[in-house]
Structures are given as structure tokens and as C-alpha cells.
Amino acid sequence: MSGFQDVRDVMDISGPSESTPRAPPLKKQKTVEKRPDGITRELFALLGENPPPVAIVENKFKEKPKWMGKANPWEWKDFTNPARTDSLILRHWERKSKEPPDLEYRFSKFDVKVDIPTYSDGEYEILKDLDWSREETDYLFDLCREYDLRFIIIWDRYDFPNGKSRSVEDLKARYYSVCRSLMELRTPLNRMSPEETQIFNMLNFDKERETSRKKMANVLFARTPEQVKEEEMLLAELKRIVTNQQRTLEERKDLFNRLEMPSSQGSIAGYTGSQGLAALREFMVNSSDKNKKRKSIAMGANTGADGSQPSPAVASISEKASTAIAASQKEAIQPKKQARKLSGEEMKEYGVIYHDKLSQGIKFRSSMVATNVKGGTAQKVSQALAQLEIAQRLTMPTSKTIQKYEQLQSNVGILLDTKKLLEKVEQELRVLKAQQDAAKEDT
Amino acid sequence: MSHLHQTLSSNQAPSTVEYGGDEISAIVLDPGTAWTRAGFAGEDTPKSVIPSDYGVIDAVGDEPRKLFIGDNDVHAIRPGMEIRNPMSDGIVSDWDTAPLLWRAAITSRLTTTLAEHPLLMTEPSWNPPKNREKTIEIAFEDFDVPAFYLAKSGVCAGFASGKATGLVIDVGASNISITPIHDGLVLRKGCTRSPLGGSFLSDQIRAYFASAAIPLTAHYQVLSKNAVEAWKPADAVYKTFAPGQEPTDSYKRFQEERVLTEFKEYTAQVWTGPGPLPPSTGAHDAATSLLSTTGRPFEFPDGYNLVFNSERHRVAEGIFHPPSMLTNYAGHPDPSSTLGLNALIHASMKDVDIELKQLILNNVVITGAGSLVYGFTDRVNAEIAAAFPGPRVRVMAAGNSVERRYAGWLGGSILASLGAFHQLWISRKEYDEHGAGIVEKRCK
Ligand SMILES: Nc1ncnc2c1ncn2[C@@H]1O[C@H](COP(=O)(O)OP(=O)(O)O)[C@@H](O)[C@H]1O
């Protein structure tokens, strides 16, 4: 009924309207139960609070929307587009309105142009380039204007009669150098505003760099499937190494924690007695030691050694350490005095030992065994030594035995490394052989 | 009820700036080799699609030449009616008839007052300037349109998939064409094409039927048929013609082409690749077991039916690997010098700037009815991925066959209904002022 009237309204046909004015839309009573149609009330009640498990298809048309009032008419209307130079009249549907229509066509705002500079004959004298004729430069600038500086398109369409073949970079370099020179010509550098200087600097096109960058990009693009595969493999390898490195770092940290000293500040009186020393040792072995095996070895060493008696070596170290502290403290106050270096015999004679690095605090010589081997090998070395039933800690750690011990350690390390390398090479050999065989089969 | 709130009330004008549309009742015409498609801009399918093939009975004595255009006319059996096509190699070659077809496509279903509607036409990227000028002349002189524009069909097909930058692979009847586009403009240096389109595939199937002694009948030849088992001779009554009343050879071929298109649609399949289909090795076809596909049946109009195995792959292989094409017929393309689809893509990408290569390969659009053969897009995908292992490749093809068929038209329809496009039309006034040469300047 009213549908017909709507059509009339839209088409703006003022014919004899329906005799009765349209009744205002009936206010519907809001029902509490929103029971969908295709389902009986009893069944619906069974569902309770839950929504129906399946969508119930209502075999019903969409309700007619309740429009407010009369439909507005549309009009087939002429319009012009200010973005055009030729006042072409096109027509489109427009909402009929009493107000004067917008004068500006609303899509003309999308008509934006890039500002391309122009130059006079006089100015061109400065812009001269041996490689470019005036005509070709003009041609380039026309294309820049036509294609809004999209150089890839400009290059694609570039066809200067009898011209050289030019790369995208050639075109860019010429365009930007002309713009730069023009800018400088019109406003000398020292009178440019900061923004202008910024623009001026941006116009600096580095052709060489751009060319080589593209060359590299091309190489990257032209990778063969094998190269891509290899790259993927290398990346996986890198990832593996990085995660391993993390682990090694953690191990090392653990090691350092193990070596952490109780603070040397404060009285050492508590450690002077044999009981105290034993307690200190206990403390050091236990502190942050999560490795049960090491602990047991250490304890073994403990029982093996003459536990109750502090060894002279230990005592000498503690003495030395305290003198070292004294020395370093003195050092801080006065410039280092060059001590007379003792000869080998003298050193032996007086029982003097020089240490390369001595940190603060008390140390056992047995714990000063330099770890010449690092990382994973260190663990393997200690394993190997354990296998050979050589104690981890020396019972009598004199400087000589320690030297020997260190040597032994590093030799074992070297051997182990060599063994590992050998295994790796053999494995690689096997893989390559297998690949070779596979390739042979393939062909 | 919430959906009602989304519906605009009749008092409220839709905000056109939101979708950028401003419909000016323009007509969009996409003249292809197989079909000529026309419709109003802003709609999603062309209202009027007529075969580009037309029937003609040449003038005899006083009788002027008679044309039969459109589906209803061209399929009728008429003695002496030749079937011709005004296009060759995807562009107009018969300028006397092409405009008649265009006019018929528009006036039969859209409007009879051409002078009231701006006209947007599509053209292939290789359309020469002469042809373009001729087209604009016809639009203004013959059709008397108020405004005109000539858009590249590759760009339009890109728009139809929402791409302004990408690689458009269009498989039409006469060609496969590859058009790299950027920012809605064709990259001319990368445009390539080969004659291995839909008609080529038809020819290959025809050649295969001939070599395997499979009789090809057209629908018009069969009066009635009885069902027969596979491989059994047909049991049908064929139409007979009195001497002098037979349809022409071109008519027969045209009708057979419809059967071949059915074969392409239901039975032919492109080998998955990448790499060429392994060669057939006689009776124990190694390829068959390799393909491990089940055969697919096809029934000819006379009821003769059989199951095709590896042959249905082999007929399509020439498109990708020309040396594999069947050559037992006259006028086949040269298998050694014609570029297969892979080589074509490669040639297209060669001159694309490295900055764009990645982006373009990430937006490969496949369009044209010829691409609807089973497995076509998968093979293209596999071939591109194998040829360019580094970059990420994404191949898009409308799953909807209507959209695939009409992508060129649809893009034109979108373009011609955009508010921002209306400044690009070539107006009558501009044409009068500058002449036909203006098309080169304005339709880039
Ligand atoms: N479903 C289909 N499967 C394969 N090929 C088809 C299918 N439908 C049509 N074709 C073929 O596609 C070609 C027509 O493609 P089209 O894109 O319409 O060409 P044009 O743009 O040149 O008019 C014809 O050769 C036809 O046989």
C-alpha cells in the first residue's frame, strides 16, 4: 500500500495520493516471550535459559522497515567537475533538496598534482650537464609532471627519440640534481630556512649507492632454489648456535657463582683456626653448588686430604693474599715501586711465586687451577680425568703439581677437541657421501 | 533487529565519499575474442554478453549482406551462413563489423540512446595507436557518446581483484597475456603474450581426437540419442541435410567449439608440475601411474562416451611447455619458438624494477575464462614458486567463475563508477578540439 506511495515519492511523481492519510505506524506491544515462530511453546519452554541448539529457520520475510515520514525524492541532475578544464556535463542521481547544491563537485578534491619545478632559459645555463641535452631534460620533466614523479613508470614510458638508454637511477639523478641546483640558485644556501635546507638535503640523490643497492637486491632476488635452501639451513644453524651460546653462558655463570668468595671485608679471625678453615671450605664447596657430583668429588678430596691440618700451602696462600691486599692498597696511595725481579733460582730458593692475576680474598691453591679448557670441553675433561681416576682436586697442590695438573688438563682438552673434530669431519663425510649417492641415483 | 539500524533511512543519502562511487550511468564495453561484454558501470556483472562470433551471408546480386549477431541468431542453422570473428590476436581486425557487434551488445539489452551515456571500453595492452584512434572515432562519430575512455583490460582485471599493483595473467580465447601493473598503470616493458589461449587448447583437443580417431559431433547434428556404455559406438539419429542446405564448415567448427569448451570445462586438466609433464611411454603409460589420477569421463552430444586418463593432461601441457604440444594439424604455433607460460612470466618479470618485483609477485592475478581449466592456477602457482624461490609468491584467482570470466569488464565497471574517475573522461568537446590523437595522450 504505502510501498506504492514510496515509489511515487522517490520518483517525485505528485499524482493523486491515497485518499486516506497514512496511519502512523502502530506501536507494537512488547511481548515478554521472544519465542521464534517455527517452534511450539511447550518445546521452547523445555529449552529453559539456553538458546536453541540449532538455528530455527523462520519462513518469513523480513519485517518491513518503519520509515519515518515521506521518502525523499532523487533527481537525475547535471553536474560539472571543476577538476576538468572543459566543463563536461555529466549526470548523476542526486537527493532533491531545497538548499542550494554544493557548487564544488565533491570528488574534485582528489585532483592533486605534484609540484614539479620549471626553469627559465637563463637558469638552464647553470643546470647544464654534458650527458643531457636541454630537450631531453625538458622531456624528463614533462614525464615527471605527467606521471607524478613515479620514476618506475617514467622509466617504463621513457622513450626519447635517439636518446641514450637510461636507468631509473639516471633519471632520478638528473631530476634531483636539477631540482637541487635550481633551489640553490633561487635561494643561496645561507639564506635557506631550516625546512628549505632539509628539503635541499633530501634532494641529494646518491646514484652510486642506489645503483649498488639495487644490484645487491637483484642478486638477492636471483637466488637459486639451492641457495635459498642453503640459506634456510644456515639460518637454522645460526639459531641453534645462538641457543647453545645461551646455555654456555649459563654454565659459565654457574661456574663463576661457584667461585664466589665470602666477603673479605671484616675479620678473618674466624678462619684462622683449623676448624674455621674447614668451615670455610665447606661453605665454599656448598655455596651455590647444585652439582651433586662435583660436590661428592670435592668431599672425597676433603676426606683424602689431611683434613684437620691446614696444609702449609694453604697457609702460605692466605699469607700471600693478605700481603697482596696490602700491596694493592699501597699501590693506590703511591705510584708503583718497581720490585726487583727474582731469578728462577732465587724464586725456588725463597719459595716465592709470582701470580699473573690475583684477586682479592682468600684462595686455595687447589682452586686456583687455571681452567685452560673452556665450555663444554671443561666438563668432558673432568669426566675423562674422573675416568682415569685422577682426583679433581689435588691432594698436595704445590705450585709445581698445579703446573703439571694444568698441563695435563689442557692436553686432555686438546685431545678431546681433536677427537670431537674428527668425529664431526667423519660425520660430514658420511653425509656428503650419502648426498652424492642420492644425487647419483637421481640422475 | 540490529540489521535494520544499518539500513539507511530514506531520508539519508548514502555517503558517496565513503566508497568513492558516483554513478553517472556510464556503459562499459569489454570486447573479447570469444565474447563481447557490455553493461552499466557500477553493476557487478555485464547485463549483455554476446558471442563475438557472428554469422554472415554475403551479398548475392541485389541482396545485401546479412549479419546474424547474438546468441539467438548465430546458432541457428542457415545454409550458406559463414561464422566469422572480427578480432584476431585479441585486437580488432575487421573494422566494418566490430562496431556493429558493439552496438548490438549495447542496444540489445542496455539502452538505445547511446548519446546519453559515457562509454568506457577496454583494450589489450598491445592495441596499436591506429586501433585506439579508430575506436575513439567510432565512439564519437558513430555512437555519438558524450564522453569516452579506453582502459587497459589488464589494469581493469587488477582492479576487479582490488589490485593496483600486480601481475595480471589473462587467459582469453586468442591469447595468454601477461601484464605487470603498478599504481593502476601498465608497465609496458613487461607486457608479454603468447597465442596459447583457449582456442589453442581447443585445437589441441581437436588434434588429439583426430589422432585417437574419436569422432567429434556437435549438438546440432544429433536429432536423438540412446544411452550407450563407455567405449561403445554411439546409438544416435543424426540430422541430414538436403544438398545445398548444409551448414557451412565454419558453422560446423563454431558448433564443435562449444563441445570442446565443455570438454575443457569438465574433463581436461593441467598437470600439477612444476616442470613439464613426463612424456608418455606408449601402451604402459608411465605418466598415467605417475599422475595417479582417476580418469574422467566425457560424453559427446551423440551419446558416445569414454574415460580419459593421462590424455586429458597431455592436451593442456602445450600451454606451459610448448614442445609437448600436438602438431598433427595445420596452423599450430611453432613448438620451439613459442613461449610457454613459464617463459612468458619470466620474460615479463625481467624488466620489472627490482623494487617492484617482490610486490608484483605477491599479487599475481589470474583471469580469463581459459584459466578455468582444472588445475590451471595450481600449476601457475607451482611454476612461479619454482622460478622465483626467494620472494613470497601469492597467486589469486577468483573462485567464482563469473568473476573470472568478467574480471576485465568488472574492473571497468568499478573504474567508471568512481567519482574521482570522472575527470579522466575524454569529452566530446575535447575530441572535437584535438581529434582522435587525444586518446594517446589521455588513456595511458
Ligand atoms: N569452464 C571453462 N574451462 C576452460 N576453458 C573455458 C571455460 N569456459 C570458457 N573457456 C574458454 O575460454 C575462452 C574464452 O575466454 P574469454 O576470457 O572469454 O576470452 P576473451 O576475453 O578473448 O573473450 C574460450 O576459448 C573458451 O573455450
Automatic annotation (TrEMBL), chain A:
Gene Ontology BP terms: chromatin remodeling; DNA repair; negative regulation of transcription by RNA polymerase II
Gene3D superfamilies associated with the record: Homeodomain-like
Family matches, as InterPro entries: DAMP1_SANT-like, Swc4/Dmap1
Pfam short name (any one): SANT_DAMP1_like
Region (Disordered) residue spans: 1-34
DAMP1 SANT/Myb-like domain sequence ranges: 105-183
Coiled coil feature spans: 415-442
UniProt keyword list: Chromatin regulator, Coiled coil, Nucleus, Transcription, Transcription regulation
GO molecular function, a single term: transcription corepressor activity
Composition bias, Basic and acidic residues: 1-11
Predominant location category: nucleus
Record's GO cellular component terms: NuA4 histone acetyltransferase complex; Swr1 complex
Compartments, as annotated in UniProt: Nucleus
Protein family per UniProt: Belongs to the SWC4 family.
Name of the protein in question: SWR1-complex protein 4
From TrEMBL, chain B:
Protein name: Actin/actin-like protein
Catalysed reactions listed for this entry: ATP + H2O = ADP + phosphate + H(+)
Function text: Actins are highly conserved proteins that are involved in various types of cell motility and are ubiquitously expressed in all eukaryotic cells.
Pfam families in UniProt: Actin
Stated family: Belongs to the actin family.
Matches recorded under InterPro entries: Actin, Actin/actin-like_CS, Actin_CS, ATPase_NBD
Record-linked PROSITE patterns: ACTINS_2, ACTINS_ACT_LIKE
Superkingdom, taxonomy of origin: Eukaryota
